[in-house]
Amino acid sequence: MQTLRLEAMDGDDELSRLRVVGEEGFGSKKYVEKVIDGSFTSDCIKYDMIHYLLYFRMLQRAEDDRTLSKHFKYEAANMAKKIDLLEASKQKLLGESLGSCSIEELQQTEDQLEQSLSNIRARKNQLYKEKIELLKEKERILAEENSMLCEKCGVQPRPELTHRREIVPYSPSSPISDVETELFIGPPERGTTRLLRRS
């Protein structure tokens, strides 16, 4: 099928403002320019040629529209199939609609859940470690600030305040033990210490 394109040209009359770009031969650029420029003296031929070209272009656009429509319908059908598969997979992972599943499908679903749970736990542990490192850095900065303040005040920092204790991540299986708490009251040089012992 020929590919033709109408272009606007500078000129006074409507015929001289139209030009067609296409293949050589009937309806080609050279042929139509001869028609429009007056090589063929019949105005009837000029008008017939322009009407033909406009109709031809309209048919070409209609064909392009049908092709695009078929393509979009195909893409929409594929998208609908993918959505159905994702919905079915989601229901299986939620433990729903398992009546039609075979043993192999159930085992595959179980393996997927175990892998997902492992990934979730690994990510959670990573976030815990990052949080612990952040807290350790804050503790170090506070200890340095405390030492600077003590030097300005001319007092010795308390050993228990400068001693860094290791932060251990919480685990549900960790044993619970009693902790002795020391409370400091008053100025540093004249403070009194009260030890709260386990009763």
From TrEMBL:
Domain of life: Eukaryota
This protein's record includes keyword Mitochondrion: no
GO MF assignments: DNA-binding transcription factor activity
Keyword terms, alphabetized: Coiled coil
Any one of the GO CC terms: nucleus
Chain segments annotated as coiled-coil in the UniProt record: 76-145
Pfam families, per the entry: K-box
Domain K-box: residue ranges: 69-159
Full protein name: K-box domain-containing protein
